[in-house]
Specification:
The structure is a single chain. The N and C termini lie far apart (53 Å). 30% of the residues lie in helices and 24% in strands. A 7-stranded parallel sheet has the order 3-2-4-1-5-6-7, sandwiched between helices. Strand 2, helix 2 and strand 3 form a beta-alpha-beta unit. It has 2 domains: 214 residues, P-loop containing nucleotide triphosphate hydrolases (Rossmann fold, 3-Layer(aba) Sandwich), CATH 3.40.50.300; 107 residues, 2-Layer Sandwich (Hypothetical Protein Yjia, Chain: A,domain 2), CATH 3.30.1220.10. The relative contact order is 0.15. The structure holds guanosine-5'-triphosphate (GTP). The site of guanosine-5'-triphosphate has 23 residues, from helix 1, strand 9 and strand 10. Guanosine-5'-triphosphate binds next to helix 1, strand 9 and strand 10. One of its GO terms (molecular function) is hydrolase activity. This is GTP-binding protein.
Amino acid sequence: MVPSRTAQQIPVVVLAGFLGSGKTTLLNHLLHRSGGSRIGAIVNDFGAIEIDAMAVAGALGDSTVSLGNGCLCCAVDASELDLYLERLAAPSAGIDVIVIEASGLAEPQELVRMVLASEHPGIVYGGLVEVVDAAEFDDTRAKHPEIDRHLALADLVVVNKIDRVAEAERVLALVRGLAPRAAVVPAAYGRIDPEFLFDCRPGEERVGQLSFDDLHEHGDRDGHLHTGYDSVSFVSGQPLDPRSLMGFLDSRPEGLYRIKGYVDFGPHDTLNRYSVHAVGRFLRFYPEPWAPSGDRLTQLVLIGSGIDAPALAEELDACKSDAPHADEHGMWGVLRYVRGSEDEPVQEP
Ligand SMILES: Nc1nc2c(ncn2[C@@H]2O[C@H](COP(=O)(O)OP(=O)(O)OP(=O)(O)O)[C@@H](O)[C@H]2O)c(=O)[nH]1
């Protein structure tokens, strides 16, 4: 039975959406714009290196926890999640809302089910937020028709990357049709009003329907979104050569949908590491100053279907360089993919 909500209970919101749709960007926006509300986050990475957790940890300190290396929806034992929920829901943590950022391949209904199944009296299911990449939406649906089912469960759908589409209204109308019970909001860089997070809580009746109708129907793991997907995790203490890495990225196979992480270009830029994101054919580098202390590492996660993981790891290995000096134009290829500013994205080359 679905427990009824009390004023003291902390809502737990599930934040889901396909690979690279902008979940971490949205979460970071909420963390910086939540005003007086304190958000706790549980971040679930598909790859073995917890890139998403690193991206939000700075903003959250000890109110972020990471559940890495595989989709939470397939956790055999949900007790780890319960443990984290308990920690974040402790009155001493002073948290007002908990957000579980699902991996981009997780089955949201499984996560909702896990939250509903939690017996912790201090929490209550706070709704499902689905993030949609407006630019990739048609292709993603064609490849993964299950996405429609995910949207139908949502309480809030953020149609993100609206800056990348010419026909925003068409995508919005399509999403509204697929998620008739949800609030549908367009966004660029996940910039939504944080109030939406508090307002998206489903009513008792809706939660009751979910637990009976939707959540138990698709328990078959073979039908999970991540079936057929592989990930490669690459770590190097040796810098990468920018020309070689661009050669790798320019020739990346179609199936390699998502790349994320941080790159050390050694002598080519001794001040910055480069956060890198590929989503489909979209590619961006974001220079950010190195921390004053700590190891300088390249850490990358590659996720795709039908990919030859060992061959990709070998190709990345071949990008390592121990040249002590930078060649003059070595970074040009990379810099073409550095954004001007948040509001002025670079043109797709
Ligand atoms: N142009 C544009 N880019 C965006 C927008 N939102 C996010 N991005 C970029 O899209 C890439 C992926 O964003 P993330 O927030 O990491 O996506 P994610 O859903 O957390 O990714 P996974 O956890 O790997 O599924 C990054 O390069 C973001 O800067 C947007 O509204 N417009």
